[in-house]
Amino acid sequence: MNPLRIGARASLMSLTQTASVLARLAPMPTVLHPFYGAGGDREKGRAALEAEGVFTGEIERALGSGEIDVAVHCLKDAPTHDSPDLIMAAFLPRDDVRDCLVAGRAGVTLDTLPWAAMIATASVRRTAALRAYRPDIKVVPMRGPVNQRLAALDRGKVDGLILASCSMDRLGLSHRITERISPEILCPPLGPRSSPSRPAATTRKRKGRSTSCTIQPQKSRPGQNAWSSDR
User: Fold this and answer.
1) Contact by Cβ (8 Å): 33, 5
2) Stretch 74-81: mean pLDDT, rounded?
């Protein structure tokens, strides 16, 4: 049997969630193909977060050309408009939908942050919510891998970070979370690209490929229902 060729972003976050897919496919032979040049991951010429396929474009093209058999995406990164020759094949259970505060001091919450605290996020949604709840907060645009943002926090460049709770959980960094923010304060992302499936992973394949029989058993029905209603 030829190994199943699986493509994913080369970021630590992506590889961590892809590991759970590989574990579910065992003992089937698999080969992981990490993609280092995803537009949103590049250090130079980094694509805008609003760009379509910012994290998936290169992987989708490799899938379409037959370079890989399956792509693993976080659902928030999946293209808004499906390609006619690619389909969503399976869904993993989604995790905590809430955003979280990671502060420089233990026990700090949005309510106890000092006046005019500097909080880092590149998200327009998070920025708007922070300014509505705490107008005094100074939002510092920051994006990149979680470990880089944590390093900036530890160096004292900002007072806190707003991150996805599920990202911290998957990376084994739950202990760094100082508050899991209520959706009443910071609403999870809504709309065709994110809600409410953001913390879920999905596998994508070419139509008509025999990989369907391999991937189908990995489906999470609640995850699929959330994605379907969202789309």
Assistant:
1) yes
2) 72
